[in-house]
Write the structure tokens for this entry.
Amino acid sequence: MLVLSFFWGQYFCNKIFIKNIMNYSTNTIFNSTIAAYAVSAACELEFLDELQHNGTINITNICDNRNLHKPSIISIFDALCCFDICIATENPGIFKQGSLFSDIYRNKGFFLWLVRGYGTIMQNLASVVKNENRTGNFIQRNGEYVAIASQQQGSCMVEPYFDSILNESSFTKVVDLGCGSAERLINLAKKFPSVRGIGIDINPEAVKVAQKAILVAGVESQIKVIQADMRKLEQQTDFIDVDTLLCFFSGHDLWPWENCLHIMRNFHTAFPNVKRFLLCDTYRSGTVPSSDIPTFTLGFELIHSFMGQYIPSITEWMALFAESGWKCVQRQDIEVSFSTIFDLRPE
């Protein structure tokens, strides 16, 4: 919890208490933790969307219409106001955007990812470090919220770059490895009615989210989702005519080196006619510890360390591509810190 406090305390301190940036206080660190939870709740309850669209929010009306406990909602907004994310108006129960709102809104998925997706592991850091507890499924995460949060951040920080690089070559059938909410495939299906897609994800909660989203979007004739482990894929009929592979923010799950090398080579066999592989991932920053760490980086590296998951550097990725039969023809950096799209072609 202290690490989480420091992470978010650092973020808010940089944004709000810039005059005192060299003097972190216990109050700032502790209260920033509360604010992070409040941001996550406000995101999940769609309060941030309401503020974004209307500029103000009437929590009295919302509580009455949605049968919400008003004192609790007031406490959430009090925490947001403490950091100038929201501002109370002269009218009781009505809040408007604060000076930090726009930045928080753009990054809201990161808060949901950390608090709801990985909140359990963050609450149990002291237990997880004990080797006797690191057996079986000792890492508890909420796959549904990880998928939702990833979709939220991806829509503004990843997809514009993805669309640009994808359209450089033609494609007819796409597989998204670790598809999460399947939002990327859904968007492709809407834009290109002739394109077919397959989503693959190991997490059953993420698969449920994806299947529901596909039905809501009305593209079930173009896309299907398979619950499977991309590390153990075998060639099947549906894979023969796949020309394009996607893998976004799941590549680090394939490491360490020898495992990833085997899996990347196996993709050639599982998808024998693939022409292009767009792999987007966050790589090791090399900046931790530091007093100047961007949003997401510290949380990403800490959580994966506790999970026992190695995060490769960009140099290690490039060396592995060469050895596994994939040529990286270009890289496209995205807005998520220390993250890039590798444009790979089979050699």
Observations:
- Residues 138 and 155 are 31 Å apart (CA to CA).
- Confidence is low (pLDDT under 50) at residues 1-22.
- Strands lie at 56-58, 86-88, 94-97, 173-177, 196-201, 223-227, 244-248, 276-282, 326-333, 339-346.
- The first strand starts at residue 56 and ends at 58.
